[in-house]
Amino acid sequence: MTQEANKVIVHIFGEQHAIKGKGSEDYIRSLAYDVDRRMKEVSLKYPLLAAHQVAVLVSLNMADEIAKLKEEQKTVLDMLGEKTEL
């Protein structure tokens, strides 16, 4: 049985967004809160940036985090694979 998509109203960087996703409402809200927090942090550091520029920087930072986590995961899986071969 597949989970139905939930529609949740969230506020990110002063704008209201209707988000539809398969996660729980709390999960979607927590993701939106994280994005909002990150955008506010970048905006405080670089107050002259427009909202879309802040969003691009936050997106790049998050993409970098994901890439690093994927690399860490690959390293751990490789290490586990080596141990099972011994």
TrEMBL record:
GO BP: division septum assembly; FtsZ-dependent cytokinesis; septin ring assembly
Where does the protein end up? Cytoplasm
In its UniProt entry, the species of origin is given as Syntrophobotulus glycolicus (strain DSM 8271 / FlGlyR)
* This protein's name: Cell division protein ZapA
Read off the InterPro entries from this record.
Bac_CellDiv_Activator, Cell_div_ZapA-like, Cell_div_ZapA-like_sf
Q: What is its main location?
A: cytoplasm
Note the subunit structure: Homodimer. Interacts with FtsZ.
Lineage from the top down?
Answer: Bacteria, Bacillati, Bacillota, Clostridia, Eubacteriales
Recorded superkingdom: Bacteria
Q: Kindly indicate whether the keyword Cell cycle belongs to this entry.
A: yes
CC terms in the record's Gene Ontology section: cell division site; cell septum; cytosol
- State the function annotated in the UniProt record: Activator of cell division through the inhibition of FtsZ GTPase activity, therefore promoting FtsZ assembly into bundles of protofilaments necessary for the formation of the division Z ring. It is recruited early at mid-cell but it is not essential for cell division.
Keyword list (alphabetical) reads:
Cell cycle, Cell division, Cytoplasm, Septation
